Amino acid sequence: MVSNSVAIRRCTSHEVAIIESREPPGAGVARSLFTAQQAGRGLYLVAWEDDIPVGGGYLEWTQPPELKNLQVDEPRRGRGIGNAIIVAAEREARQDGALEIGVGVDNFDARRLYERLGYLPTGRRETYTYEYVDADGTRQKETETAVYLRKVLTSS
Ligand SMILES: CC(C)(COP(=O)(O)OP(=O)(O)OC[C@H]1O[C@@H](n2cnc3c(N)ncnc32)[C@H](O)[C@@H]1OP(=O)(O)O)[C@@H](O)C(=O)NCCC(=O)NCCS
Question: What does the alpha-carbon distance between residue 8 and residue 6 come to, in Å, rounded to a whole number?
Fold first, then answer.
């Protein structure tokens, strides 16, 4: 069970600068997710532990909504924070009736977490290429195939 000192909330303009300062230079992940939130395209949910940002996820307002960019800082994994971010996203998506999550075909650990929470395969499978800045500040390009899982959310 995640500790009481972990709080999950949507990112504010003050907080985005704190998250950004912990990213490799030029990564721009927090800023782009926050900009998308400000444009009304989604919610940038951030997990805070003792005033430190320790993970997050982006809930995109597609139909159904999709949880993207889910990650927890490596030393803090396996303590329920990822689970808590998903539960927070489900609360926000409840009125839309379902939530989808894409997971890399070889990401068995993450998939196990989603399946435990009741996510089932939709049959959608996509291969896409994305760029990111690694911990050394080097721009990298990667191609990944993801399968999409969905959970039906009820109002109760
Ligand atoms: C996947 C992830 C967000 C889960 O967050 P977490 O806080 O570690 O998860 P929780 O503690 O709530 O739940 C534990 C479960 O997460 C999964 N998990 C644990 N460590 C993991 C790791 N290093 N990588 C991926 N999944 C992991 C397992 O299913 C684990 O269950 P288990 O104890 O039965 O093995 C986190 O591990 C992570 O950031 N992984 C790397 C990025 C990633 O794969 N993101 C998902 C993209 S779809």
Answer: 7
In 41-108 the beta strands, taken as DSSP E runs, fall at: 42-49, 52-60, 66-72, 98-104
**Counting atoms of ligand 1 from 1, which one is nearest the CA of 102?**
48
Nearest protein CA to atom 31 of ligand 1, as residue = 113
CATH of the domain at 27: 3.40.630.30
Indicate the pTM of the whole model.
0.94
- Domain containing 101 equals 6-152
Answer yes or no: is 127 within a domain. Answer: yes
For 60-114, the pLDDT digits (tens) are 999 999 999 999 999 999 999 999 999 999 999 999 999 999 999 999 999 999 9
Q: Where are the alpha helices (DSSP H) in the chain?
A: 13-20, 29-38, 81-93, 108-116
